[in-house]
Amino acid sequence: MSHHSPEDKKNIGWADHPAFVRGFLWFLYLSCAAALVAGFFWQKEHPHFAVETVPVFFAGFGFVMFSLIVLVGQHLRKLVGRPENYYQERE
Fold it and tell me: Is the whole model's pTM more than 0.70, yes or no?
């Protein structure tokens, strides 16, 4: 349990308000649902590849690729990241 002073509530950013976070998550959920529904009704008339005719292919492909980018980025940071005090060592 955290103890916040009244002064902490004054310094909270607009994106940290619980109402904004809830609203943003609902918007995100509805957008994802709309993309899934649209994937069943709107198909490319002349697909380049056969897999493009699968319903919701683009929504699923986008989700999988974004997830892979995030997961690979976590490991890439370990490989190319600098220590926290990297710039202070030179001074």
Answer: no
How many Cα atoms within 13 Å fall on the side-chain side of residue 29? 6
Whole-number Å distance between alpha carbons of 64 and 58: 10
Phi, psi of 66 (to 5 degrees): -65, -40
CA angle, residues 57, 62, 67, in degrees to nearest 5: 130
One-letter amino acid at 13 equals G
Q: Which of these, 81, 57, 77, 59, lies nearest to 69 by C-alpha position?
A: 77
pLDDT digits (tens, 9 = 90+) for 14-67: 888 999 999 999 999 999 888 888 888 877 778 888 888 888 888 889 889 999
Contact 39, 56 (CB under 8 A): yes
The DSSP symbol for 16 reads: G
The three-state secondary structure class of 9 is helix
